[in-house]
C-alpha cells in the first residue's frame, strides 16, 4: 500500500437535527449527558436521538443508560445496523490501477422519548423502575465534582539526591 495514496473526499454537509446527539469516540460521556439535559430541560424536547458509528458504539450505549437514569419515564428504541464506507486509493507510480476498498462499519441509533413509543418494535425498551432514577438539577450537572486541579499521585517533588 506504500505505492498508493488515499483520495480525500469532500465531506458531505449533513444537516444535524437539534434533537440529535452524535457520539464520537473522542467525545466525553459527560458532555453528551449535559447536552441531553439541555434538550429535555431548556429546549423542552420530548425526545432525542443518539447516533454513533464504529468505535463510538460503546459510548453511545453508556450515554443512553446514564441519561435513562437521570430522567424519569424514558422509553427507548434501539436500531443497530451497518454502513458501507468506500475508500479510494490512487497510485503514486505509473502503470498501477486505482484501488477501492469497501469497509462495513457498525452504526447505532438510540431514540429516547418521554412519550410512549411503538411497543411492537423489536428494539423497544420500556422505562426503567423509578427507584433507579436520580433526578439531577441542571445547575448540579454543570458543577464540577471536585476532581482535577489537584497535585495528583505523581512521584513528588523529589528529596534531592542521596
Which blocks of ≥5 consecutive residues have pLDDT under 50? Answer: none
Class derived from helix and strand content: alpha+beta
The rounded Rg comes to 22 Å
Query: What fraction of residues sit in β-strands?
Result: 25-35%
List the secondary-structure elements in sequence, H or E.
EEHEHEEEH
Largest sheet entry: 6 strands, mixed
Q: What is the overall silhouette?
A: flat
Compute the average pLDDT. Answer: 83
The share of residues in helices is 10-25%
Count of β-strands: 6
Q: What is the count of helical runs?
A: 3
Alpha-carbon distance between the termini? 54 Å
Mind explaining what this structure looks like?
The protein is α+β, with helices and mostly antiparallel strands and 162 residues long. The protein is 19% helix and 30% strand. The chain is built from three helices and six strands; from the N terminus they run E-E-H-E-H-E-E-E-H. It has helices at 29-42, 57-68, 138-142; strands at 4-6, 20-23, 47-53, 75-91, 99-113, 124-125. Strands 1, 2, 3, 4, 5 and 6 form a six-stranded mixed β-sheet that branches. A hairpin with a 7-residue loop joins strand 4 (75-91) and strand 5 (99-113). Helix 1 crosses helix 2 (57-68). It starts with a strand and ends in a 20-residue tail after the last helix.
